[in-house]
Amino acid sequence: MYEMVEPRIEAIKREIERVLALVELEKMGRPIKADGFRLRNLSNWQTDCAPGYLEALGPLSGACNARCAFCMERSIPFERDHSFLSPEEARTRLKYFNPENNRCLFPSARPHMETLLNKDAIRILQNARRKSPSALFIITTNGSTLTPEKIRELVSIKPLLLKLSINSTDWESRKSLMGLRDELNIAVKSMGLLKYAGIPFIGSIVAWPKVDFTELERSIEDICLYQPYGIRIRLPLIHKYMPDLPIKNPNGFWRDTHDFVHSVKGKFNVPVWVEPVQYGRVPLLPLVDGVILNSPAMLAGIMPGDEVLEINGNVLPTRMDIRNYFGSGVLDHVPVLTVKVKRGENHLTFQLRSPNIADNFTARKQIYPYDPDMGYPGERFGMLFLPDFDLNYLDNIIQLIQKHDARKILLFCSPLTAGTLERLIEHISIYNNFFLEKDLWIYTLEHTSMGGNTHLLDSRFVADYENAISKFCSVIKDRPDLILIPDGFGSSWGIDFLGRSVFEIESRTGIPVELIAWHYIYGRED
Amino acid sequence: MGLEEKKCLHPFVNYLKSRLESLLALVQFEEGGQVIEPDSFSLKNLSAWSFDKYNTIFDSLGSPSGYCNLRCKFCYEGGNPLPFEKTRLSVREADTRIRYYRHDVQKGLPLFKTRLYKEPFTNRDLLPILRMVRTADPMVEIPLTTNGSFFTDQVLEQLAGLVPVNLCVSLNSSHPEGRRKLMGDQKSEESIKMIEKLKSYDLPFVGTIVAWPELETNELIDTIYYLDRNLARAIRVTLPGFSRFFSAVPPFNTKEVWDKVLADVLPLRGKIKTPLLVLPSLYHTRALLPEVAGVIRESPAEQAEIKFGDIVRSVNGKSVYNRAAAKKLLAQEYSSPVMQIALERNGEIFQIELREKGADQSCYPYRPPGYPASMANPFGIILIDDFDPVWLWEVMKRVVEIKAKHVLLMTSAIMEPVVAFLLASVPELDNLLGETNLYLWVPEHRYWGGNIILGDLYTCSDYLQAVNDFQEKQGLKPDLIILPNSFSPNNTTDLLGVSYSSLEYITGIPVEIAGCTHITM
Lengths: 526, 521
Hints:
A: 5-stranded parallel sheet; about 15% strand; B: alpha/beta; 15 helices
């Protein structure tokens, strides 16, 4: 199963098979029946990067106990690794994560499925916690195993944030939508227990035609009763392998859902947002995407939609500047934040004060779901900024173009990001000047081999790019001299689910191909 | 095959070994979930490995022993830097090799490890192994080169039961003290005495002498007479050789020593009946001339009074113009009962009919009971190995095919004059070449050094240097290099295991390998 993530392991395996077809191994004259192998010198195999110990573990489970109607993994025609991360593998992965340079072992090929289905999940997470006492662990779960006992065990892993797939708070509806038995309605009940345990959660809903907007709104309301950290409404991706094409007009469904959520989110006192975050949102502009309940931002009066002008005297012109500023650690022990915002025509200044809670359990409970020590990416003092396009992506692209001395660049990009990119190049003079003497074609895929509305993603299939390039060349009657493809394959080798490498394009067309870091639609971290 | 063994392996096995080593540097194997570190491997499906060509099943066994019990002063293995394996052929390996030998195509298992041919009788299992060979093939001739120190009546009796066995005995001196000094044989009296017994067991033998300078003239001559008296099939005197690994400074003046040996030995050819050969023959014999080097005693040739120095003019009516052609024609007739041959002696031509006696008649040493007619020396006539002009013709045809303009043909000190003579005197070769310039070049023996004059020991590095030397001297870059294949035991690599393609790679000049005559030493 390592073809995608570390093809050299498959190459070693094949080489072993070839040699063992010719020779029989012996030890002290006795034949050996080698039936497996393990890698030596694992420190040489730290070929990947992870922000922390939890991420270095990779998915704990490649299996799920739910059968969600909207699940992208449904009926896909290629092999997936449905195994669980074993405690032994976990120990090795933790051992070979280097927090100084963030190097870790090559990733596993498991998709992110139901973490808590791994019977060793708590033990593995506790081991990771011992290595990393303060980092926030984010776990996505369908909640079906969140019994009071399990939640008590999870307390030992704090700081922890759950992304809880609720989808609908209507018991019957949830059961049929998610194909879960969950007779005790454990997931929905767990929300109350999580508050008691001091574990914040993000309520997650995948919008789906079976759940109408009334039910959607009621579900948001219901979740709000349990004081969630936030609520995300995910717009569904569908592909042609799903049974009975569940949504006939996905574009319309996305638009309607987005508009509906946009129209009601102001009613709730927690952040409610739509994912993919790129959809229907003003990009780049440093608008507050949400205010965490009971947070200093809420107490001070910051509101969603406020445009941040300055934080503690720093001008941070884009959302990513703020996220990077938050992530840099400069605010870790700062007690007060002075935030200047623009609200409508008004310029307002707020003082956000960190609550003095120390280890006071009751005080912590009072400010739930806010937690000053949590460090959720993009949030400090309760101001939430969701991921956005990072200008570093563009700087990186410019470097690649210079490296190849390219003049005619074909850049693939999701339709959800293309507009942002075009506007950046148009409005920022350094980018504008750079591209003045170059041909830059920003190409958005219209059809992908997965069908449905997966063209909104950056395709994970080499064939899609290959087809698009040949079509493109025949239309413009020219050839690009550099092809840039978002590194969205889930493989740093650029190998797709069918085992094809994106660099095959380079050897077939003779045009250099580079993978670029990018703002993914439904990126790997989700 | 132990994984720790280095070098001296067959390239295929070495390749597998190095692949395994690379893999084992990356992974540990598991058996039932437990780590297990293999320490050796064996080949699967051996029948698929029976692809190496051998003349006989016995050859397919390789050397019986990589050990020698004596320490000859002249041993050319002294200081040999090449990786060789010191082992003996085991009964088990012999059994496997015999089992996988394919008589129909004369192919067997490759020699997986390079084991030098040393004293075969240091292998205690030699006689049982020979019996296995004899059972598998009742006809095959078994050649054994030995220092003779293991000969006892019991051994000779057993060998007599395994005929045909062709012995080549390194006597070197028939003076017990001399042999002791030269070879370190503590029981030299017995070893020398046993030579006298070979006839009583009907075991024919070739006696050999390395004419090392320490060997006094009278001792050398006595030894030749001793071998003659004891009816050796032939006596081979080898001019002494050494490499730079043998001795940092030359142990003697080669020309002086060689010329003295020739002066001492060559005149004896008219005085004794046994064929007396001094090697390398081309050092002192006229090349190409189809001259008889000697006749084996009790052979049809001896009975027909053919003598050393007679020149073969025709065989069964077919005219003969050079030695290689004569050898080929004679070899074709080796098993005929009768052969017509025309000889020239003192300007006169004789027609002679040679008639083979029946196999039931003992003709020691020519053909004792149980021995087939000799293909190497048909009817008892010995011709030395010589340059075959056909080879040059083939090479030239290849050159024309490739359309090369400047061809560098590597040769050796001993062969160069012959090739030059042929090129100058055969107009057809010149016509064939047309516009092509052919350059003969004798590379310096930089790797082995010493007094080597043959081409067999050239290395690829010598050839590379030679290309540079040539370019420096001639000021032009050849567009084709031809190497005689004598330097390579496998038509690919030199004795150090370096492939000739490295020469091509480094110089950027195409290299062709051409088959040629190996000079038997």
